[in-house]
Fold this protein.
Amino acid sequence: MAVPERDRTDLTDPTWWRDAVVYQVYPRSFADGNGDGIGDFAGLIDRIPYLERLGVDAIWLSPFYPSALADGGYDVDDYRDVDPRIGTLQQFDEVVAASHAAGVRVIVDIVPNHSSDRHEWFRAALAAGPGSPERDRYVFRDGLGEHGELPPSDWVSHFGGSAWTRVPDGQWYLHLFAPEQPDWNWEHEEVREDFHRTLRFWSDRGVDGFRVDVAHALAKDLGEPLRSHPHVNSMDIEIDGTNPLFDRDDVHEIYRGWRRVFEEYDPPRTAVAEAWVPVERRVLYAKPDELGQAFEFDLVKADWDAAQFREVIVDSLERATAAGASSTWTFSNHDVVRHASRFGLPAGTDLNAWLLSDGAEPVEDVALGARRARAAVLLLLALPGSAYVYQGEELGLREVADLARDDLEDPIWLRSQHTEKGRDGCRVPLPWTAEGPSFGFGTGGAHLPQPAWFAEHAASVEDGDAGSMLELYRAALALRHTLHTGPALQWQDSAAEVLHFERSGGWHVVVNLGTEAAPLPAGEVLLASAPLEDGLLPSDAAAWVRVSG
Ligand code: GLC
Ligand code: CA
């Protein structure tokens, strides 16, 4: 088998991101250094050796900026500072230095669709009044109706309710998310310039790349009269680039401008778009003269089903290649039900209804979910392109589906009028040890309560246990780094319920999503997610096999 093409920890390599494994840190729930129940940079710095040992190439930090936490930090008060509860700019520099010393890059989350309502420019807009240049940086409009008492359009917020909120002087402002998240007016030159300044601010501090929040919503058709758009779901929109709110063709000019900023640096900074749009439009964000990558979310939405997986993989690889991008695979993040739970529920389960039942209906098959999650990571890490791992999945964490209503922090719970429980169940602070007030998350409590079963998943419990999820992730990552990973795969003949492909150099990957045991190609089994049965790969398992010759 071919030797690695390059040293993956070489921080000067401009192509590192193409096949990087990136670990998502949700800072408030990762590790708490001062015992106040909220994760912070001190806790993160302590755990960098853990991440180095895990074998990831980079970390992506979800927002750590000053924020009132109306939306878990995605309501940013100041894009160029650190929330004092999380740390200081100096500690941020220490995170970067310690990560780089460990050969791990740092990607930060950039939230360009909206600020928070406490941002300096939003306060200025409120103070300056209707018609002022300050208001023009956001989207303010007079209302409809005789006294302007009706919102300016039928646009709806992603978290429920109207996307418009009225201010005391009678005008309304737009927020595609919570009212505390006013949308920027991207037609305004100062807004564009200020984001370039933010990109440079973090790049100058040594950040390697950016994850771009709701990348598909920045450019809007704000021409009067505002066009009707009574939907929220950007997956249902027309895909010709003409929707008034989402995925407009104009958005790409913004990212071409960002690319010019990225290219000021050596190596150029990288970016990945969060754009929940169909694959044929999604890859446009990932073009080399724009962001370079865009999350492949179709695997997040797929059932545990070979045909669905195959279709997503084929389509995504084909389109990414055509766009000159690399694919960007993931099964979980801070917005979705953890995949160890999804795969333990019957296909087609209404996840929201399941959460509302506190995980009672349908009953989760915990063992099945864990077994499939083990197979899933061998698929994830074998696909060409880069892979994103969400904190805690390497411990096999499941969704905490039974959080009490009173403990919920996600604005979705309130804004949906208690019809959606929201995303807190995947954001519960990590268990590092089996004992202690918050399972080693910190010396105090945890801002979201951890269930007793977290003890079994503590990093210290799994460490060194050959059968644990943690050791499987470590082994798979270590192996991945020694295997030659070209940009393509070759599908091999297999039963319909089995995925079998070869990467370059005789690395065969077999994933059995069916109910019958499946044959493996003749060769050396490098890694398997479950013990083989008479040389066959059992149901819901995966294996990497080295085939020589
Ligand atoms: C993205 C984030 C999500 C946030 C939303 C609004 O989808 O991933 O957590 O609520 O944007 O910023
Ligand atoms: Ca803390």
About this structure: The chain has a mean pLDDT of 95. The pocket of calcium ion (ligand 2) is lined by residues 32-34, 36, 38, 40 (CB under 6 Å). The radius of gyration is 23 Å.
